[in-house]
Amino acid sequence: MPKAQRNLRIREILEVARRTRMEFAAQVVLITFTGAVAWMATGLHCIPLWVALHFGLITVERKITRRLRNSESPFALPAVLAAHLAIGAVFAAMPVYLWMQEDEAFHFTGTVLLLGSILNIFLVRAQIWYLALCFVAPDAVAIALIAGHIARQTPTPAQAITVWVVASAIIVYLGVALLQAARAHRRHLVTREQLVQSQKMEALGNLAGGMAHDFNNILNVITGTLDLARDERDPARIAAQLDRAHAAADRGASLIRQVLSFARKSHLEPRRVDPPAVIAEVETMARRLIPERIAIDTLVDPDVPAVRVDEGTLVTALLNLVLNARDAIEGRGRIILSCTLAPGLPSGRRGRVMFSVRDDGHGIAREMIGRVTEPFFTTKPVGEGTGLGLSMVAGFAAQSGGALQIDSQEGAGTEVRMLLPLDDGPAQPKPPAPANRPAPAPIAKPRCVLLVEDQRELLELLQIFLRRSGHVVHAASSGDAALALIEDGVCPDILISDVVMPGQMQGRDLAALVRERFPQAQIVLMSGFEEASFGCPEQKHCDMLFLAKPVRLAELAEAIAPR
What we know:
Blueprint: H1 3-19, H2 21-42, H3 46-68, H4 76-99, H5 104-123, H6 129-153, H7 157-231, H8 235-263, E1 271-273, H9 275-286, E2 294-300, E3 307-309, H10 311-328, E4 333-341, E5 352-359, H11 366-369, H12 389-399, E6 403-409, E7 413-421, E8 448-452, H13 456-468, E9 472-476, H14 479-487, E10 494-498, H15 507-517, E11 522-527, E12 545-548, H16 553-559
Helix pairs in contact: 1-3, 2-3, 3-4, 4-5, 4-6, 5-6, 6-7, 7-8, 7-10, 9-10, 10-12
């Protein structure tokens, strides 16, 4: 199981504990009171020991769960589930013990305890099937042991068979209920993913107008600069104008990558994230969404440490908070994005980074603050909001091991603070930014290049560049055409291919075929989509290089340089 999925499951268990604090408090009072009464009435010293052991295990389990929620160990989730299994086993042991006593009052007490355990499973634990299993299994064993004890006491075989039939029916029912819980949990995960995507699509719709404006400006710079270069005679001025066009194209490529990352559909993939970079990205996107009458300021501590979260979902969450702040401001106003180390943490707790979005809008009524994170609850007029924004932000914060705090006062604005855990791992070096490096000189020994690209103008451009570099180029406009060239005897030293193309043979398939037939060939894949969108079909094929479009010629030359 991937580490991100393990950590997500641990955080789901933590979230169940957080949502059921009142039920747990009632359980403490009820079990402690009844245990004390039973001890005084019966004199059984095992009862207070059982109560102490039960709540002691719960305390240990919660400490283990909090400590392991961001663990790298593959044994983190099994350790958490083992702690829950121990709690379930200890609780189920008492009904069995009471049924072994002769007094029928003990039998009634044991039955009530077992019934309470089953109700607790399906009212609280069933939200997560693998958590419910840790309590269903001990209860099923307890029912079987009690049935065996009763069957041994019955005078006739028919009565014993009846006892076992009833016990088996109850155990089967528990199994069926567990399967239903598993299906409900899967539906919940699918629904949650769909809600996250709906929020992204809503924000992308808002971004479309601003993006169109930015792209028109970028295209205007490129076309205007090329028009000037066409009529220019001075080589130095031509080079300067072409550099300006290159810079504009890079801005367009950066904008595309930003939107692709934002719209990416995936499960949470926590990794090391630099908070100042996230704030800068959110500010850039927010300025396309916020009217000029609303000012946007940022307050960022440059020394704030990295956090461990899913970067794309963090950007989505902050952008949702910015959109909420925009909608809360009537007329002129100000939105402040800030990022600092969270103050005032109790000693012994891991540090957190605080992301904050503050506005000077109309604020939220005190009686509403407790409800604003409920799904589909909104204070906006009908048709102007789904009521999912703050709910999704709160869910993301909880799944990431953090928390959401809201401060608001009517007429004085609102501040939403998201506290996220620090990343304890070593810093990862950032990849160098692409530079306008000159292409290398033609190589001494020509190499055979199989070039596959379905966009005609790009195919011709890359052909010209590769032939100028001294390579022998065989070009194809699809994977199927490239396969035909190979069947006709082309033996490529280098494969350069788009990933998504018309026809049956896609870039990944072609690369796998070339790797199998020509093990020494270099393979370079190009795409305008994210590399993570395609995955790696087999581990042995993961030595392929990936270049994100638009591909700079210098980058391509470096990628196919002899090794």
